[in-house]
Amino acid sequence: MTLIRKPLSRRSILRAGAAGGVALATPTIFTSSAWSAGYLNEPTGSTVTLGFNVPQSGPYADEGADELRAYQLAVEHINGEGDGGMLNTFTSKALKGNGVLGKKVEFVTGDTQTKSDAARASAKRMIEKDGAIMITGGSSSGVAIAVQSLCQEAGVIFMAGLTHSNDTTGKDRRANGFRHFFNTEMTGAALAPVLKNAMGEGRKVYHLTADYTWGWSQEGSIQKYTEPFGWDTVAAVRTPVGAGDFSQYLTPVLNSGADVLVLNHYGKDMVNSLTQAVQFGLRDKQVNGKQFEIVVPLFSRLMAQGAGDAIKGIFGSTAWNWSLTDEGSQAFVKSFGQKYGFPPSQAAHTCYCQTLLYADAAERAGTFMPSALGAALEDFEFDGLGNGPTLYRAGDHQCFKDVLVVKGKENPSSQFDLLEVVEVTPRAQVEYPADMLGGELGAYNNGV
Amino acid sequence: MTSNPTPTRDLAVFVIFAAAVLTMPIWLAPIGAAYPDLLQKFAIYGLFATGFNLLFGLTGYLSFGHAAFLGVGSYTAVWGFKLLGMNPVPAAAMAIVTSGLFAWLIGYVSLRRSGIYFSILTLAFAQMSYNLAYSVLTPITNGETGLRVLQSDPRIFDTAAQSGGPLVSTLFGIEMSGYPGFYFCATFLILGFLVAQRIFRSPFGTMLRAVKSNQNRMNYTGLNPRPYTLAVFVISGMYAGLAGALLCITDPLAGAERMQWTASGEVVLMTILGGVGTLLGPILGAGIIKYFENIFSAFNEHILQDIFSFLPEALQGPVVSISGLFVGEGWHLTLGVLFMIIVILLPGGIMEGVGRITSMVKGGSRKKHQHQTAPAE
Amino acid sequence: MDVILLQLLNGLDKGGAYALIALGLTLIFGTLGVVNFAHGALFMLGAFCAVTFNKFLSLEKVVLDPTKTTAWGTPMEVRTPYVEAYLGDFGAWVLNYSVPMSILLAIPVMLIIGFAMERGLIKHFYNRPHADQILVTFGLAIVLQEIIKSIYGANPIPQLAPSAVSGAADVGAFLGFDPGVIVYPFWRMVYLGFAGLVIAAVFAFLQFTTFGMVVRAGMADRETVGLLGINIERRFTIVFAIAAVVAGVAGVMYTPILPPDYHIGMDFLVLSFVVVVVGGMGSLPGAVAAGFLLGILQSFASMNEVKAILPGIDQIIIYLVAVVILLVRPRGLLGRKGVMES
């Protein structure tokens, strides 16, 4: 193992502590059983601790808050409180509502600040100090990749939250990391046919792309899947993350000859660039005899709220939306809505599912040991969590499930009813070979 | 510094300081801070702030771009791992050299100006470094994801056994994470403290203080202050570079956000919070801020309810919700309030508070002596 | 040609915003000698005046409709804004113009905030080192934005421009180009005009009133003015309040361009300092000129043609200009000699 070498050092600290006569003030040393464990942070008492690492400050704070709500709900359901939510619709019936492996689930929380350093520090705190057996959460691919590799080195399981870059389960995949959310590759595959139907073949495309891994990944996927039907890229311009005012990047679009604008932005950037693009009159323009169109590949309802009216009629993709009518989604919306008074976001959904999936895998594996638990997740087929029949692929630890193509709703019936599902793209259409994106899972690390 | 420093006193301070740092895992346990990652951060940011204080505390030059050196140190260290292998010593050495060179370049240009102009120049350089690291320099920095060591990297000095193993820095077979990592960093902190102490007491340090108190007078005496300020700027940059390298030695990842202006602002805050121009103050300030960031931000409603469970039911709700504003996601609020209180009431930082208490205990005869924080320009 | 004109227009528009923020900052620095890191927070508070006003106008009457239920099984809420419910068309009209009208709210609110800030906090820092001023105002900025965040959340809250000026204007046709070649958002043009108006008003105030004369004299030589028996302190309070109002209304009018969130002030902070320094610390015309100059440069640096030659230039141009100016002409574009040069 690696990052956290508790056995030896803890004992030496114990000795030093006893010598110093302050041992009584450090009770955690006695309760910790790290050195007798078969794996890192093996729970020996009647509880098991999960670590929820979400952005509580910074641009994704609202998303982080929603993730945290979902985690609390999931913990309640696993512990047998509340109405059980999606546990009732989940096809695996291993969880009995009495915790996991008879242990009550507890949790600790941390603030990623959407910064790799801060996220790793808070994950380390949860592992080293609070004895978390699993880390989950996050709302940015950069952070997810950084925390995933930390968990690999430390020897705990990482259940990724909202992370959409291919790299998380592509070239930066790790054995200890699992992702339920979809990625840019799937967005491209799902979105392209809908765009072709709605906007026609042979268009001139202008990309504005957030200048980091996720943006490039997204830009590449859209190009890859739209080029076959004659969508040519006029220009692909990189914009700094957090630019705020995008006007200087939007003015060149006006007379570039492009008739489609793809905004590869997420979060605040997406809200700003979309609102401003609409203000520039782009949606009222006719270019090359065609109606000018704007596409936002990754949508989220929370962002749609920020963009207001600008979102109406804009195409994009999303992992899940609360308006879905399948049993699982309805059960989840019901218990979430009753507890908090509003519907859950896609981030909340993926985090809730990840927690259930983890708990379920532990129950089926009969242990929290990362290697055994991971094996239980690998090639696990399930249904009832809101996305139809889903596969946790062994080759890259990526979930494959239906993808939603959505459009900003023209006449919302409530302040939450902002997205209209245009098409549920079946899983088969978004699947790709596990080795296509490169990367190496490596071996599981149990942390000892 | 209430009394004149003497070599014996310095030695005593140093010994006590070293002992305190090395026993941190014991005496920090009751407040929940005695886990390796946070202890490492205490040591590393203490070193960073010590270096920053050499520049700001002695010469009064307020650099708002020190995070750039931290970042350069981090990137160099990770490149050291990638190319040479996982031994921390060459990585740290390379980081000190590169950040020193970088500091020399920036310092050479920026030190042509003083006061707030100097601050803005350093800020501008740091922001340029940050923006470029985030975008155009991605081949070197790996952009937003951050630079990491990969199994496929050359790592030419690693033995066959190491090359297949985990990607953690190792010295003589000891992995530089967990407590060994802390002691490694602590050693550098203690060394850095010693060097800072020597500089404070040396003729060089006196010369730097002269720059702060009256540069004109210094010019009239025919002394050119530039070489001295540049030298201390470079030393300060090397401290930052070393701190950056240590961040990567304990956790081999370098991200661009380490260079953002808010990170530069953080070290300014640490230094001022603890006490500018004092030896211990910046280290204390670094510790307090890192403690807040890591412990306060982790409080959630459950923990608060536990804490206030002794209160009667009716009181518990409001108390929890009010205190909830200041912890968890609201920890920035606590930080902001704390700064305002410190700056308004204790301009000399915590060290001034300590000094006041001591002098009060001793009878308060030296009260006037404290107020010595001279203007920054 | 049309591309150049468009970017120029864009640069002017950006410059208007930069100039407005830098103007207040310079006013405070020039008269009070205080480096105000909370100036961005004042901009943010102004923006949230618009949000609050809009929220207040669109306060909704919530009626539970038992016949319909939400997806989670509780009765559906039917919401109608009170203004519309009671005032009909006039209410809708007011709601439509909520952004420009919230200036009426922002002016008194920002006056009070500015007054309170100066009397309660800044006053005690006139003779303290700049580092202390920076720290205490930075602390204040954090406190203010955290308070806003705890009230309004972290997400941006969109504000709509009045529908009459919400689209894009065909500027080119007006200037004799082919229609549709040079179009620019209507509201941004309004903002540019508004910025010009506020700048002119501040200059006129300082130039043509006795009060302004005293303040300018105070900027030039505070001690002498004090010796003349003029109570310069009281005037400083008013100057600070004016600067707060300028920042506040700039924030109000900016909301349709950039949906405000609690962090919007910090995003402008570093930039506004660069603008002030490039213009020359304490020089009002300098701040305005530098604002427009940097806006235009940033706009041109973002053109694909420029970026093809100098990759990444759009991200660093502002700082690069600042470095060059400070090295070549340390007092800034229009700064007086000796100010802050030590």
UniProtKB/TrEMBL annotation, chain A:
Residues 47-409 form the Leucine-binding protein domain. InterPro entries: BCAA_transport (IPR051010), Leu-bd (IPR028081), Peripla_BP_I (IPR028082), TAT_signal (IPR006311). The keyword Transmembrane does not apply. GO terms for biological process: amino acid transport. Keywords: Amino-acid transport, Signal, Transport. The keyword Signal applies. Transmembrane segments: none annotated. Belongs to the leucine-binding protein family. PANTHER family: LEUCINE-SPECIFIC-BINDING PROTEIN, PERIPLASMIC BINDING PROTEIN OF ABC TRANSPORTER FOR NATURAL AMINO ACIDS. This is Substrate-binding protein. It comes from Roseibium limicola.
TrEMBL record, chain B:
It comes from the Bacteria. InterPro entries: ABC_transp_permease, LivM-like. The keyword Ribonucleoprotein does not apply. One of its GO terms (molecular function) is branched-chain amino acid transmembrane transporter activity. It is a multi-pass membrane protein. Pfam families: BPD_transp_2. One of its GO terms (cellular component) is plasma membrane. It is found in: Cell membrane. Keywords: Cell membrane, Membrane, Transmembrane, Transmembrane helix. Its main location: membrane. The chain crosses the membrane at residues 12-35, 42-69, 89-109, 116-137, 181-200, 227-247, 267-289, 333-358. The keyword Secreted does not apply. This is Branched-chain amino acid ABC transporter permease.
From TrEMBL, chain C:
It comes from the Bacteria. Pfam families: BPD_transp_2. The chain crosses the membrane at residues 15-35, 90-113, 189-215, 236-257, 269-296, 308-328. Keywords: Amino-acid transport, Cell membrane, Membrane, Transmembrane, Transmembrane helix, Transport. InterPro entries: ABC_transp_permease, BCAA_transport_permease. GO terms for molecular function: transmembrane transporter activity. GO terms for cellular component: plasma membrane. Its main location: membrane. CDD domains: TM_PBP1_LivH_like. It is a multi-pass membrane protein. It is found in: Cell membrane. The keyword Transmembrane helix applies. GO terms for biological process: amino acid transport. The keyword Cell membrane applies. Belongs to the binding-protein-dependent transport system permease family. LivHM subfamily. PANTHER family: ABC TRANSPORTER ATP-BINDING PROTEIN (PTHR11795:SF442), BRANCHED-CHAIN AMINO ACID TRANSPORT SYSTEM PERMEASE PROTEIN LIVH (PTHR11795). This is Branched-chain amino acid ABC transporter permease. It comes from Roseibium limicola.
